[in-house]
Amino acid sequence: MFAKNLGAIAAPTASLHFSQEAKDYLLSNYQYAFITLHVGAGTFLSVESEDIRKHPMHAEFVEVSPQAQNALDNSPYILCVGTTALRAIEHYKRGFGNAPCHLFLHPGNPVKHAHALLTNFHLPESTLIMLVASMLGLEKCLALYQIAIEHNYRFYSYGDGMLIL
Fold this sequence. Notes:
QueA-like; 33% helix; S-adenosyl-L-methionine; queuosine biosynthesis
């Protein structure tokens, strides 16, 4: 729904949870900013290192327009739609600007600037579930995923969504 720039190998899927009416409502009633993170194939690779800090994080190019920079720099509350948006915003807010992003968010490197996240339920051993754990903490993340499993939630790109506040 929000993908528009060529360069990514996959479209952002968290936005698939919005109907056109919901999208129109949100864009009419809330301040927003669009950013670009060109999703690379590394997003879908499993973490195989026993010590996750040794996982070689893939690079993805981030582009934050001057309008988006202004919005992000002046917003007291940031809700990200998707892990790609969160990763790109953290990359920008940590001072890396429009450059390749190697940022690996996990419980040992927690989210510092985003306050909320709308995302899908991600697969085990992925950098994406570790990003979720970087917001929630590992124990809370595992507990919530156990609830999702018990209630047969659908995982991955076209699965069920969760809102972390």
